[in-house]
Amino acid sequence: MMLAKLVETRTVRTLGAPRSARTRIITLVSIAVALGIALALPYLGTTAYVISLVTTILIAGLLAASVNFLVGDGGMASLGHAGIAAASAYGAAWASRQGMDPGMQVVFALGTTLVVTFVYGLLSMRTSGIYFLMVTLAVGMVVFGLAYRLSSVTGGENGITGIRRPDFIAEYWTFYYFVLAGFVLGTLLLWVVGRSPFGASLRGIRDSESRMRSLGYSVPSYKLSAFMISGIVAGFAGLLSVWHTHFVSPSAAGVHRSVLLIVMVILGGVGTTFGPLVGAAIVVLVENVLSNSVERWPTVLGLIFILVILFARAGVVGSLQKLFRRWRRRSDGPPGEQDLLENSPTTDSSHTA
Amino acid sequence: MFEPVFLAQQALNGLSFGALLFLLASGLTLVFGLMRIVNLAHGAFYMLGGYIGVVIATLTGNLLVAVIAAVVAVGITALVVEVGLLRFVRGQELPEVLLTVGVSFVIADLCLAIFGGDPRTLPVSATITGSLTIGPLTYPWYRIFVMAVAIVIGIALALVQSRTRVGAIVRAGVDDREIIAAMGVNIRWVFTGMFVVGAALAAIGGTIGAGMISVRPGIQDEVLLYALVVVIIGGLGSVPGAAVGSVLIGLIDAFAKAWIPDLAYFTIFAPMALVLVLRPTGLFGKAA
């Protein structure tokens, strides 16, 4: 497929030699520092607004991570993931409006997530590339249509308000820790799956479906499984978002949301572990700042999207990784095995399409 | 519910809506056939064409002038998009498609800024009024006119593709871009031309369609969904597929709206799901 340009950074890293001890230490230390700051955040004299904003970023980052997993490891660009998250949110919201307790909200959120994700997966598992994108887009539009027109269940255009979250996370800062824990667990899950044999097979399918099929892999079931994993993470993010804002409306399922997720992923860096979070942070911040001052927000969003695709396809994290590698190459002297691999044609998956 | 007049009425509704879908889907499928781009700005082109068509028709009272104005304006927009943006990512499918999403956002939002949020329809002065009466059946001439336009354009597209030099170049370009480029054809400009033609078809659909369904914010996503469903069923890149898919979806939609209005949104989706499960490339599609 022609996804090569978008998944370039990931391919390089998975095919490259094991990262050096120094790189690993730097990565671990920076993760520890980031986590330390995140844990200390409510004690740093921050306002409830800042905590709420960071919570929004973490939820968006988790949702973007679920898309990133599909694009990066699976080569499947989903343009309908907002629909999955919204389905989960609607499940929880509906249960809440029926007066059910938070436990049942979780059950309904999970139930709708599984059903909707399975339908998505079933319809799209035999397609790839552009076809996959179109099918997920179409299914996402149907979820939006459902949310909009099935007003007896979804409240139509007005959505559902007043969703209560469990008592133990009722405070904004306890909820923040809950979301932080959820984000770390979700990211860890996707990271582990990405590095498992399953993840390797998935990347094999991404690079050459026909080769994997002739090796005896059941390509559709791998794609469906990947979609289910991604969908469950997305559904969890949807539940978190409805608990965060106490509100869900059709726009949560809209094409715009799905596109924003792709923007986050590309902006941060496709296939990188922390790219989605960085992308989500940029988008959420821009959105919150701009929506106060610029009425033509969708135009700005569209322009950002166009500029990112034209000029910054490696994304922030991807570009930093590239810079870092170049800097290391210079400081380490003659090129090592990793650099040779990096420049060899086998790392360009477009040749294997 | 099953009276002949009612059935005929719904069948005509379905066929006229199908005709509009064909105007919409043929452009989408042509662009994909040659350029491998699923132009997700197609709905926005339809919307822009519709608004401009309505404005010009209100000013002049002449449908032909309105269509020409819409085609020119949307054609220029498409030219700018192709030369100014898409050429920079030529050959990279996913970035190409995603760029068109960004374009769609910008166009739809600018339409909202310029034309406002109220639904707009073609003024009566620019539509074909009156209705055809055969016994107990009456049917508006305008919808029959839409069918006629779709049939004329469908035949014209088929003739251009099969009988002219331009058609031969396009057909060759679909099969092998490198060879046709090596034979001295400037394939880049063929691509550009194709993109503009696809957008022009959307503009025609937008203007003429404004006599059947109003142009309003959000219409771009709605018509894009219908067009996507049609080309997924018919097979991307296939004009006959677009014709068959349009008629099928038009009829299903009309009868579903009459018989099971609550489920109408899903009835267009069911055949798409069925086709995708059985034939992922569509009825007339070739493997990607």
Automatic annotation (TrEMBL), chain B:
This is Branched-chain amino acid transport system permease protein. InterPro entries: ABC_transp_permease, BCAA_transport_permease. GO terms for molecular function: transmembrane transporter activity. It comes from Microbacterium immunditiarum. It is found in: Cell membrane. It holds the Pfam family BPD_transp_2. GO terms for cellular component: plasma membrane. It comes from the Bacteria. Belongs to the binding-protein-dependent transport system permease family. LivHM subfamily. Keywords: Amino-acid transport, Cell membrane, Membrane, Transmembrane, Transmembrane helix, Transport. It is a multi-pass membrane protein. One of its GO terms (biological process) is amino acid transport. The chain crosses the membrane at residues 12-33, 40-57, 63-85, 97-115, 141-160, 189-213, 225-251, 263-282. The keyword Coiled coil does not apply. PANTHER family: ABC TRANSPORTER ATP-BINDING PROTEIN (PTHR11795:SF442), BRANCHED-CHAIN AMINO ACID TRANSPORT SYSTEM PERMEASE PROTEIN LIVH (PTHR11795).
